[in-house]
Amino acid sequence: MGAKLGSSGVLGGRRRGDDDLAEAHEINVTPFIDVMLVLLIIFMVAAPLATVDLGVDLPASTAEPQPRPDKPVFVTVKPDLSVAVGEDVIARDALTATLDGATQGNRDERIFLRADKAVSYGELMEVMNLLRNAGYLKIALVGLDGRR
């Protein structure tokens, strides 16, 4: 019942030394692809989470304050959207004439623009456009000192 070896050492048509597995000289890239797909999914999920809408408190600033002129000209946009030059509330169409009087016609003088937090960005831009159309291009935005 035992198998007999022939003179060539073949047992049932196979050589005795061929029972060991042959070395594989190829790299199996399937695990590498799986890892890359998992990383791709993680980045696809995490990327939208990285862009978060933040509440912005624009009136605070950490910039070094600039020296104030002796008589600064303040233009203020109040919460009710009225505009004031200095302490006097004026109509928006009278802004150019009032500023010309306050600056003695010097359109190179810096105008300090301040607005309440309740004023929308669009309303502030509208007042800035009025200043620009009047020829006042040096506009400084006034805010609270946020360096505390």
What report would you give on this structure?
- It is a single-pass type II membrane protein.
- This protein has three helices and nine strands.
- The protein has 148 residues and is an alpha/beta fold.
- The strands form three sheets. It has a five-stranded mixed sheet, covered by helices on one side.
- It has a domain at 73-143: Nucleotidyltransferase, domain 5 (2-Layer Sandwich), CATH 3.30.420.270.
- The chain has helices at residues 30-50, 95-103, 121-133, and strands spanning 10-11, 14-15, 60-61, 73-77, 83-85, 88-90, 111-115, 139-141, 144-145.
Gist of the model:
The protein has 148 residues and is an alpha/beta fold. The chain is 29% helix and 18% strand.
The chain-level structural class is alpha/beta
Which percent range fits the helix content? 25-40%
Q: Any guess at the CATH architecture of the domain at 73-143? A: 2-Layer Sandwich
Query: Can you give the mean pLDDT?
Result: 77
**Rg of Cα set:** 39 Å
Report, as a whole number of angstroms, the end-to-end distance: 97 Å
Query: Which stretches are low in confidence, meaning pLDDT under 50 for 5 or more residues running?
Result: none
Major sheet strand order: 6-5-4-7-8
- What is the count of DSSP helices, taking H or I runs of 4+ residues? 3
CATH class of the domain at 73-143, named Alpha Beta
